[in-house]
Amino acid sequence: MLIASNKILANICFTVEGDNLIAEGQLTDDQRHFIRNNKQTLLTELRAANELCPLTTEQESAIKAWLARIRETDPRLIAMTIDQCRWDGEARDYILREYEKTG
Questions:
Q1: How far apart are CA 92 and CA 53, in angstroms?
Q2: Which residues partner with 10 through β-bridges?
Q3: CB-based contacts of 102: which residues, under 8 Å, 6+ apart?
Q4: What CA–CA distance (Å, rounded) separates 19 from 96?
Q5: How far apart (Å, rounded) are the C-alpha atoms in residues 37 and 89?
Q6: pLDDT tens for the 103 residues of the chain, in order
Q7: Model confidence, pTM
Q8: For the chain: N or C, fewer Cβ within 10 A?
Q9: Among 71, 70, 67, 69, which residue's Cα sits nearest to residue 81?
């Protein structure tokens, strides 16, 4: 996968809205250039990952509960975290494990 294997994309959280690919945070010129040149591949990968590992209602509730436990109240960061967990199984598993530990 282009996203998982590419270091230039490390630590970038993506959101897909229709045909728009939204990258959160400050991007370097190299990152912008890479994203622009690979937009369709990135969109395809993100959509496929979401279809392969959809976030259940229960998982989303647990993630939100964990974020509340750690006192994360910024709606943008909460939305970014939920979006990341929709396509990043490792991030989702980590947060769900933390939720269980603190439950």
A1: 10
A2: none
A3: 66, 69
A4: 29
A5: 25
A6: 566 556 777 777 777 777 888 887 788 898 899 889 999 988 888 777 765 567 889 999 999 999 999 999 999 899 889 888 887 778 888 999 999 998 7
A7: 0.55
A8: C
A9: 67
